[in-house]
Amino acid sequence: MPGDEVRASDLLGRRVYDASGRPLGKVTDLITRLDELGRERTVAVLVTPRRRGRLLGYERSSQRGPWLLAWLAKVLHRGTREVPWAEVRWER
């Protein structure tokens, strides 16, 4: 159905709240998985409580690279976390 689709660009940077209305931060990335039909489905969002910026993948524990960049990303994006899609509440 037209209108049911949402673009990632519509979600990135939007403020997210928990179930009780407290702000969690802004969406910096979408996490998807393949469903049983092989289609990409958003299952969670990555939320950072601080300024929005490129994470360069260093928020993922499997990412390796220059230690200085990894340290800087860790400092700048501390508090970044994955929020399951079902728990996401959007700004009003």
Primary descriptors:
single chain; 92 residues; alpha+beta; five-stranded antiparallel β-sheet; 5 strands
Task: Describe the protein.
- With 92 residues, this protein is α+β, with helices and mostly antiparallel strands.
- It has one domain (8-90).
- It is 15% helix and 33% strand.
- The protein is built from two helices and five strands.
- The protein has helices at 8-11, 67-76, and strands spanning 15-17, 23-34, 40-48, 81-84, 89-90.
- A five-stranded antiparallel sheet has the order 4-3-2-1-5, with no helix packed on it.
- Strand 1 (15-17) and strand 2 form a beta hairpin.
- It is globular and about 40 Å long.
- The protein starts with 7 loop residues before the first helix and ends with a strand.
- The relative contact order is 0.23.
- Pfam families: PRC.
- This is PRC-barrel domain-containing protein.
- InterPro entries: PRC-brl_dom, PRC_barrel-like_sf.
Compact summary:
With 92 residues, the chain is α+β, with helices and mostly antiparallel strands. It has one domain.
- Integer average pLDDT: 78
What fraction, in percent, of the residue positions are helical? 10-25%
What is the tally of beta strands?
5
Largest sheet: 5 strands, antiparallel
Cα-atom Rg, whole angstroms? Answer: 14 Å
User: How far apart lie the N and C ends?
Assistant: 24 Å
Helix count, DSSP H or I runs of 4 or more residues: 2
How is this fold's topology laid out?
Blueprint: H1 8-11, E1 15-17, E2 23-34, E3 40-48, H2 67-76, E4 81-84, E5 89-90
